[in-house]
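I had to read the description of the data format several times before I understood it. In essence, backbone conformation is discretised, so a fold becomes a row of integers matching the chain in length. I therefore recommend that a typical entry be quoted early in the introduction. For illustration, here is how one protein appears when written out as sequence plus structure tokens.

***
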Amino acid sequence: MNNPITQRGSLPLMTSVKDFFLKDKVFLVAFILAVISVIFGGFETKFFDYKVIFTVFGLMLVIGGFKSTGLLHYLGQALVKRSQTTRQLVRSTTMLTFFMAIFFTNDLTILTVLPLYLTITKSISDRRSVYIGAALILPAVHLGSSLFPFGNPHNLYAYSFFHMNNLEFFKGTGLLFIAGFIVLNLAVQFFISDEPFEVNTEVGTFNKLEAALYTLLMALMAASVFGWISYIIAAAITAIVILFYKPRLFAEVDYHLLLTFICFFLIVGNIVNIKPITELISSAFVGEHMSFLGTVLVSQVISNISSTVLISPFTNHGMSVLLGADVGGIGTVVASMATLISYKVIMVAARTEAKGFAKYFAYINTIFFIIFTLIGLGIVSIL
């Protein structure tokens, strides 16, 4: 006879497991492919990059901590309050996004800046400028986060996998970063009206002591990325401090992303043992230009993080893969998690105008995708 207590207890567990797998479609696909690869190929761990896993985990804890301090929201409010025209507001928002993404990753920056922007711009009559301003936040977050290895997960992976030295890394990302700064400002100047308006927002406060603590932890994690301290020690210190100070931050870590990395490590580990597939992929990414273009295009289908892990073992052109992933995040809805987050924020905060925002998101992303694909090809050609 079935035990009703056991049945009732097992249902919530099964539901939780189901929800966990269905919450992130990229992870779900990666998990299925990883299971298939393990069944037919074995449990290959030679492509596991433990530095990436430990470092991304530590950075997620720190970034979650910054979010809880209110510092990022404070910076956004303080900057936009000084704006007196639509163009000034959009420029301030775009540049805030661009520079904030250097340290706080795409996802947190989008979640901080975009809702604030949507709230402030509700009273602006020039909706076209408002739509374009929102759309510019997306390329700004990708181009800004491209500068440092710890700006986003795919940068960190490429930096680690290809054993790039700092000069080599910053030659490529620095040029992309400068190009991004110039093109974003030109876009604001030419496409946003200079209509006056008054910003009705109050600048709040933030927890200065906590902000100082997380700044120190961020510096510790950054030092581990550059190899100045062991990544295991840095991640352990960060985890221990947060465990005792604010343990709830562990629940905010994106475990789907960490598991997606592990799944792709398993997939790649088995793919390299299949000679026909290896030869096919390797032949498709011959030369710095094809490695760049391949990463850009594959990102449009499986996201820039997944494409970086998948393509890296089959080419020696690390800078091409790195820049391809940075540019590849600008494009389709699935090209990056930041893009998906942007659309979700729009649907929640501006559902009645979703079509208008979506239209200009598509326009701006397409324009920036074309421009920076050409710029990226130019950069890999001169490096």
